[in-house]
Design brief:
The structure is a homodimer.
Chain A (H helix, E strand, L loop, with lengths): L1 E2 L9 E5 H18 L2 E2 L9 H10 L4 E3 L2 H10 L5 E7 L3 H10 L4 E6 L2 H10 L7 E7 L11 H13 L3 E8 L6 H17 L6 E5 L15 E3 L8 H5 L10 E12 L2 E4 L3 H4 L11 E2 L6 E5 L4 E4 L11 E5 L3 H4 L5 E5 L5 E5 L8
Parallel strand pairs in A: 2-17, 3-10, 4-5, 5-6, 6-7, 7-8, 8-9, 9-10
Antiparallel strand pairs in A: 1-18, 2-11, 11-12, 11-16, 12-15, 13-16, 14-15, 17-18
C-alpha cells in the first residue's frame, strides 16, 4: 500500500526514512571494510527482510538474529540471505528441530556457553546432512551470557569439536560498552589456547553499535555485528555515535490535549515508545523542540512538559526520536517507510514479536 | 489449538490462569455491587473478547477501551458487548469516521477535555442516526489529560450540549493513586455547577485498580473502570491490593545459561516482560523463589541474581509475575490460557498493538 504523504498517516505511526537508512548502512560498511572487519548486522533493530537485503547488498557477509523464530521470519522474507547466525543458547527439542530445518535453507551458525546446550544441539543435529556450526559465547565484561574465562572457552570448544554433528566455528562476544580492549584480551587468550589444543578458530565475532566507529580487529576480531546503527536513536545520539540527522526512525504523534500552558499530551505512550530509558532522562527527543521533555508515559499517552510555554496546540503533529529504536519496531505491526521519492510505503514488521 | 500441558509450551510464553481470572472478576463485581458502583472494566489489561465476555456475564455494564482500533477489535470479537466507552480524546477525521461506524454497532461513548476535540466529534457525527455521548474528562490530580477545574468542566459540558450531533453524558476521571477523595471533591463541584446550568449529568465515572477495594461512590461516582484487577501483577501485590496467588498472568521462561554461581539468564527479556518498573526494583517476581532478583533485561535475556547460590540449572523453567500485566499482553500474539480442566488453550490477543 502506498500512501501519498506523512500527513495521511493515522497516528501514532513509526516512520522510517529510507535514504537515511541507506546512508547509515553505507557508512558502517565503509568503516568495516576499512577496518578489515566482516559486517554481520543484527536484524533485531529493523526486523525487516527488505532492510536486511540492503545490508547484504552493501557487503554484509550475513545477518545476526537473536531467536530461532526471528531467523525463520527473516529467511522466509529473504530466502537469498544465505548466512544467518543466531547469537543465543538454543534450548529444547522443539527449538533445535526448527534450527535443523533452518540449516537446510541457509548457512547457519549458533552459539553456546554451556555443555547442556551443546548436548542438545548435538542430539538434534544427529543425522543432519552437515554438522551445525557452533561458536563459544564469551563473557568479556557484559556479565550476561558467556563462558567466564579463556580456559572455559577452550574447554567448551573442545566439547563442541567432540560432539557428534557439531563443528566448532569460533568465538563470539557482546562486549560491555567501551569494553572492546578488554574483550580483545579475552578473545586473544582464548584463541591461543584453543589453537594450542590443535583446533582452528575460523572466526571471532564482536558487536555493539555504541562502539561502532572505533570497532577494529584488535588483531583478533574478524567480524562485527551492530544492530542499532541502521536507524540510530536518542541513546546513540547521547553517546555521540550519531547525530539527530542520522536517526532514520521517528515516531509521528498527534497532540491530543494541552491541559495547561506548560503541558501537552500526545497519542504515543509506552505501547509505541516503550519504557526503555537506556540511562537517559525522558522518553525521546521531540524533533525541532529541544526545549521539550517527554517526562511521563502511560500506555497510550505521552506527557510533554516545558519550563516555559509549551507552544503546541491540539491537533499538532510532532516527530520523536525514541530512546531505543530496536524495541519500538517490536511494538507495531508495520512501519511507514519514506522512500527517496518522498512517497510512503507501509512495510509489515515481519520479525516483530518473534521471541521463541 | 489445545495443547496438553504447560510443559509442552515453547518459552517464553505468557500464561493466564482462567480460574484465577474468574475469581478476580467475581470479587470485584461483588465489591462494586456492594458499593453501588456500576462496573465498566478496562480491557487494556487482557485485550481479549473472551475475558470481556466473562466480565459482562458477571455484571459489568460495558467495557472501557483506550483507542478506537482497540474498541473495534473488541466489538469484532464480541459483537454482543453492547456498551463501549473510549476514554480518549479522539482526533482527526479518519478516526472520528471509524467512531461513527462503531456507533452503529454498540452503545458508544467517548470523552473530551477540549473544544477542538468536541468540534471534530460534532463534525464527524453530523448526519449520524443518533448523537454521540461525550463525557468531560477531568484532571482531578493525575496531571495527564483533563480539564483543570470544575468551572472548565461546566464550560465544556455546555459546549458539548450545544454542539450538533453530540450529547453530554457525564464526567470521567482517572484519579492519581490514592486520590479518590480529592477526585470526588472535584467531581461533586463540577456536577453541581453543570446541573445548576440546567444540564443533567447522567454518570460520573472513575477508575484505577490500585484503589479498587476502597472504590466507593463518595456520594458522586456512579461507575468504576478497573483494568489490572483481572490479572493483577507485582505492582498491585507491592501495594497490598492483591496477593501473588491472585495473579492470573505469569511469564513462563527457561534458564538458558548459568554463567556463575549466583547468576542465571532466562529467555524472557524486555520483549516479553517490558521495561516497566512502576516504581519497583527488579523486573518481576520469580514464583517460589523470593530470594531471586531479575536485575537486568535486554531484549531477549533476563538476568537473575541471588546473594547466595542461584540454585537453577540450564533447562529449568520458572514462572514470573511481571511488574505490569497490561503491557505484557501487548507483547505477544497469543496468551496460553489454563482452563479449569488443566488443559491449555492458545488465545490470540485480539486487541494487541491497537494504538490507533
Amino acid at each position: 500500500m502506498t500512501v501519498r504523504a506523512l500527513d495521511d498517516l493515522e497516528t501514532p505511526a513509526v516512520v522510517v526514512d529510507l535514504p537515511t537508512v541507506r546512508a547509515n548502512i553505507e557508512r558502517f560498511q565503509m568503516h568495516a571494510d576499512g577496518a578489515g572487519l566482516a559486517a554481520r548486522p543484527h536484524i533485531k533493530t529493523h526486523k525487516l527482510p527488505q532492510i536486511a537485503r540492503l545490508q547484504i547488498e552493501a557487503g554484509a557477509v550475513g545477518i545476526t538474529c537473536q531467536k530461532v523464530s526471528e531467523a525463520e521470519a527473516m529467511v522466509d522474507g529473504l530466502p537469498t540471505v544465505g548466512d544467518v547466525m543466531i547469537t543465543y543458547n538454543v534450548i529444547g527439542r522443539a527449538k533445535v528441530a526448527r534450527l535443523a530445518s533452518l540449516a537446510q535453507r541457509v548457512r547457519l551458525s549458533v552459539v553456546a556457553d554451556n555443555e547442556t546446550v551443546v548436548a542438545g544441539l548435538s542430539e538434534g543435529f544427529a543425522g543432519a546432512p552437515e554438522p551445525l556450526r557452533v561458536l563459544v559465547e564469551c563473557d568479556t565484561g557484559g556479565q550476561r551470557c558467556g563462558v567466564p574465562s579463556p580456559e572455559a572457552a577452550c574447554d567448551l570448544a573442545i566439547a563442541i569439536g567432540n560432539a557428534p554433528a557439531l563443528v566448532f566455528d569460533g568465538l563470539m562476544t557482546y562486549p560491555a560498552a567501551g569494553g572492546a580492549e578488554r574483550a580483545a584480551d579475552f578473545l586473544r587468550a582464548a584463541k591461543s589456547r584453543i589453537e594450542a589444543a590443535g583446533i582452528p578458530v575460523p572466526r571471532v565475532t564482536s558487536g555493539g553499535s555504541p562502539d561502532i566507529w572505533t570497532a577494529a580487529t584488535h588483531g583478533i576480531v574478524t567480524e562485527y555485528r551492530p544492530g542499532t546503527y541502521v536507524y540510530n536513536d536518542r541513546s546513540l545520539v547521547a553517546r555521540g555515535v550519531a547525530g539527530l540527522d542520522d536517526c532514520a526512525l521517528t515516531v509521528l504523534a498527534t497532540v491530543v490535549s494541552v491541559p495547561t500552558a506548560n503541558r501537552a499530551i500526545i497519542d504515543a505512550g509506552s505501547k509505541v515508545l516503550t519504557s526503555d530509558l537506556l540511562g537517559l532522562t525522558g522518553h525521546g527527543a521531540v524533533l525541532g523542540r529541544p526545549d521539550l521533555t517527554i517526562d511521563q508515559l502511560s500506555e497510550e499517552h505521552g506527557r510533554i512538559v516545558s519550563s516555559g510555554n509549551i507552544g503546541l496546540k491540539v491537533g499538532d503533529r510532532i516527530r520523536i526520536v525514541p530512546n531505543h529504536a530496536c524495541v519500538v519496531t517490536n511494538m507495531v505491526d508495520a512501519v511507514h517507510v519514506v522512500l527517496e521519492s518522498g512517497q510512503v510505503e507501509r512495510w509489515p514488521v515481519a520479525a516483530r514479536g518473534k521471541v521463541i
